[in-house]
Amino acid sequence: MSLCGLDFGTSNSTIGVIQSDQAVMVPLEQHPITGSPETTLPSALFFDFHSDEISFGRKAIDSYTNGHFGRLLRSMKSILGSSQMEEGTQIKTRKYLFSEIIAFFLTSLKERAESFCQQDIDSVVLGRPVHFNDHNAELDRVAEEKLRTIAESIGFKNISFQHEPIAAAHDYEQQIKQEEIALIIDMGGGTSDFTIFRLSPSLKNKADRHDDILANHGIHIGGTDFDRHLSLATVMNQFGMHVQYKDKPGVEMPKHFYVDLATWHRIHLLYSRKTLWSLQDLRLRMADTRPIDRLLKLIQQKDGHRLAALVEQAKIDLSALPQTDISLAFLEESPSLSCLVTGRQLSDAIDHDLQRVFHAIDETLNQAELKPGDISTIFTTGGSTALHAVDQYIRSRFPNATCVQGDLFNSVGKGLVLEAQRRYC
Ligand SMILES: Nc1ncnc2c1ncn2[C@@H]1O[C@H](COP(=O)(O)OP(=O)(O)OP(=O)(O)O)[C@@H](O)[C@H]1O
Ligand SMILES: [Mg+2]
């Protein structure tokens, strides 16, 4: 029997084990193009309606992108802590609860790790955001309980939790040479979480680090929110978001369709007959039907996740390029339809959310009763810390701190394994 640290992320998940007394991240999948082993598994499932099989991670995304007949689900973690948790979703002939779907995904992670270390794994430290729900402590408690029940149902016997930024702090502590007051910033797909931690080479094996955690805070804003804002500010115009009623000038198409289409974990809600009927009805009443036809085609082809993935990729590309094109040729080939997206549009679209994230960092400092000048190191992890605006903010708010960029996708996972070793060995 053995232990693991499991980081169930909104966008990517990892699982790590101990081998020869070292934390090792499990290679979970091969990169479909390069063939290199990947220690992240995108948090995605694909239910194939022909074979009745479920695939996971990059394979799931590939099956969907290659047009296999079925249903893709992503960002299931966002449903934990939301009111959608008790609902299910119809997949082919059966209704599945979201807890069942999360269990399928976590089982696949656990099995990959068991096959890697050739033994059963019965003990887990699961990562969790500081808040599953920012406003409702009861929903937050229920979300953790739900995750615990799912972990039990898939065979874990010893289950405990650690806040994700604290796990990242444990990972960073492995490399330091002297005591530091570190601000850990973990911005992922669903949440942004922060810890201020007194780290020291001499403290790292201490069992109880409670006194060294000077502050711990988080906010439910992450990369999937940035995707939604970028989508609503740009590509949704091609689908009629601002088209007006023929008989009610100034009144636009109902916004909720576009918000669902731009929100990873709500896209499946559009694939109901009721939505299709409402949109067909609305089409007759709109001043411009062409973009609405495009929207109907997109929904009928169940291409919502494909569009969301293109928007996400545009956001990622904009960390290296001033502008990029989102190709919509899969909907209209000749002339080929596309949508130009600029870095300026991205920064305008996400500015409000980013300011809230930066305000939450200030609240973290207040919690610790510290000023920016008291922070010796900023350690960043999580994919969304690659955004230009985040780097600019850190350098201007903490000009005297040393900035250390951690492993964007594995730092939390490595820290969770170290925590599992501390708790269960
Ligand atoms: N270069 C980049 N620029 C901007 N965002 C990026 C970049 N690379 C990845 N991202 C975003 O990072 C997010 C995924 O990060 P990560 O894998 O750390 O999240 P997660 O751990 O799954 O989520 P969470 O911890 O919030 O549950 C996605 O929203 C992705 O689009
Ligand atoms: Mg994460």
From TrEMBL:
Domain of life: Bacteria
This protein's record includes keyword Transport: no
One Pfam family named in its UniProt record: HSP70
GO terms, molecular function: ATP binding; ATP-dependent protein folding chaperone
InterPro entries for this protein: ATPase_NBD, Heat_shock_70_CS, Hsp_70_fam, YegD-like
The family this protein is said to belong to: Belongs to the heat shock protein 70 family.
PANTHER family the UniProt entry points to: HEAT SHOCK PROTEIN 70KDA (PTHR19375)
Protein name, as recorded: Molecular chaperone
Provenance organism: Gynuella sunshinyii YC6258
